[in-house]
Amino acid sequence: MSDELRDQLPADLNMVDYVGAYMFPDNSRRRIPGGIYCVVAVVLFATWLATKDATVLLNDGLLISAGVLGVVGVFSLTSGWRMTIDEKEALVLATASVGFVVGHASAQQVWRGFRSRPTWRIFVYDAQDPPVQRGLVLVDAIDGRVVESLTQDNPEVPLGS
Q: What is the per-residue pLDDT for 15?
């Protein structure tokens, strides 16, 4: 039975055995492929200009490819926001905005809008046992402003608990 093939996470993705502080990757890494796309688009456009009437093997597909890569490259460059707020700072901002003492919380990075602005989605429960209130807070990962804060009574707790 030990020779069976089993599904398992690769060692670098297995967080159970990871020791130390985890650093969430910065969203500005999108600028690297964006720059590469723009350079390739310029090379394709220059090649099209130089050979547009010289050969049938290099045709208007180069121009179309240059246009598509150029648009994708500019989008990647403009949506590569540098995050200044990490999940710990976002949790502090979320705690201040909900109006109750936070017990358990969870942070998730999401993106908003056409240019994919990074935002922390923080789900919080109050510190009571069992938690009576819960909240969802969206914190902008660039400037730290609270985009939205929603709180409600916890529907999972029976009334009168």
A: 64
Domain tally for the chain?
2
Residue at which a domain ends, from 78, 106, 137: 78
User: Can you tell me the distance from the alpha carbon of 21 to that of 94, in angstroms, rounded to the nearest whole number?
Assistant: 21
Q: Are 119 and 85 in contact (CB under 8 A)?
A: no
What is the distance between the alpha carbons of residues 98 and 26, in angstroms, rounded to a whole number?
A: 27
Decide if 66 is inside a domain.
yes
Q: What pLDDT digit, counting tens, does each position of 56-93 carry?
A: 777 888 899 999 999 999 999 988 888 888 888 988 99
pLDDT along the chain (161 residues), means of 10: 68 65 74 94 92 78 93 91 87 88 87 88 88 90 90 76 53
71, part of any domain = yes
Element (H, E) at 39: helix 31-51
Rounded distance between C-alpha atoms, residue 79 and residue 116, angstroms = 6
Rounded-to-integer distance, Cα 97 and Cα 90, Å: 11
